[in-house]
Design brief:
24% of the residues are buried. The protein has helices spanning 2-21, 31-45, 47-92, 96-109, 115-131, 134-147, 152-168, 172-186, 193-209, 213-225, 233-248. It is mainly alpha-helical and 249 residues long. 82% of the residues lie in helices and 0% in strands. It has 11 helices and no strands.
Length: 249
C-alpha cells in the first residue's frame, strides 16, 4: 500500500510538471512577449521569495556603500586634523621631539589606516631624518614603500631614500637590500633611465663595499648599458671608476 501511495505521488508530480510546461504551449505572440509573460508569471508565483531576495540585496548594497562613505568621511576628518596639527607645529616653532611625539600619538589614534598611515609615515620619516635617527626614518619609509603598489616610481623612490638612510645608519646590508629593491621595481620602466641608473650604481657600490664583487660588476654594467643622456654622465663616470677598481682587484 505504501509503495502504491508513493508511486501515485510521483505520478501526480510529473503530471503537474507537464501541466506547468504546457501552460504557454498555445501562446502565439513573439518570443520576447513569451519571455516577459513567463517572467511575470514566475514573479506572481514567487512574490515572497523574490521580495526577500531583493530586499536583502538592497540592504547589503546600502551597507557596503555606507561603510565606504563613512570611511571617506573619517579620512577627510583626520586629514583636516593632521593639517591643523602640522600648521600648529609650524606657527609655534615646535621642537622636533614634540612634533614627532604628536604625530606618533596621532598615528596610534587614527582609525582609517591605508592612505592616512602612508602620509604620517612619510612625515615621521622626514622628522626622524632631520633629528639624525636614520634607522627610524628608514623604517617608516620601508613600511610605506611596502604598502605602495602604484605608482611604481614612488615605491622605488621610497626604497631608494630608505637605502640612503640605512647607509647613514651604517647598516650597509639593509641599505644594499633597499637599493636592490628600488632597482628591481623600476627596471621595466624605460622612461626612468636616470633614476634606474642611479639605483643600479648604488646597488653596485654597496655590493662592492660589502665584498660582493660579482654582484657589484653586474649592477655597474647595467648602469653603463642604459641608453640616452637621461641616465647622466655623472653616474656613468662613477660606475666606470668602480669597474676599473674591480678590475685592478
Amino acid at each position: 500500500m505504501d509503495k502504491f501511495h508513493k508511486k501515485n505521488i510521483i505520478e501526480q508530480k510529473k503530471q503537474a510538471e507537464l501541466i506547468e510546461k504546457d501552460e504557454f504551449a498555445d501562446f502565439e505572440g513573439s518570443k520576447a512577449e513569451l519571455v516577459f509573460l513567463k517572467f511575470t508569471h514566475f514573479l506572481s508565483k514567487n512574490r515572497k521569495s523574490v521580495f526577500i531576495s531583493l530586499a536583502s540585496a538592497i540592504i547589503v548594497l546600502a551597507s557596503v556603500i555606507g561603510f565606504f562613505e563613512y570611511r571617506q568621511y573619517l579620512f577627510e576628518k583626520e586629514t583636516v586634523t593632521l593639517e591643523d596639527l602640522k600648521l600648529t607645529h609650524q606657527k609655534a616653532n615646535v621642537s622636533l621631539d614634540a612634533q614627532i611625539q604628536s604625530l606618533e600619538v596621532f598615528l596610534q589614534n587614527q582609525s582609517t589606516g591605508g592612505r592616512m598611515e602612508l602620509r604620517v609615515w612619510k612625515d615621521l620619516s622626514k622628522l626622524y631624518a632631520e633629528k639624525g635617527e636614520f634607522g627610524k626614518a628608514a623604517s617608516y619609509l620601508e613600511d610605506a614603500a611596502k604598502k605602495i603598489d602604484t605608482p611604481k616610481e614612488i615605491k622605488a623612490l621610497y626604497f631608494y631614500i630608505a637605502g640612503n638612510y640605512r647607509e647613514r645608519e651604517k647598516n650597509n646590508a639593509k641599505s644594499l637590500e633597499n637599493y636592490k629593491i628600488a632597482a628591481t621595481v623600476v627596471e621595466p620602466a624605460r622612461e626612468l633611465n636616470g633614476f634606474k641608473a642611479w639605483s643600479y650604481y648604488q646597488a653596485g657600490r654597496l655590493s662592492y663595499l660589502t665584498g660582493d664583487k660579482q654582484g657589484a660588476k653586474q649592477f655597474l654594467e647595467k648602469a653603463l648599458k642604459l641608453d640616452g643622456a637621461e641616465s647622466g654622465e655623472d653616474v656613468k663616470l662613477l660606475a666606470s671608476y668602480l669597474l676599473l677598481k674591480l678590475g685592478k682587484n
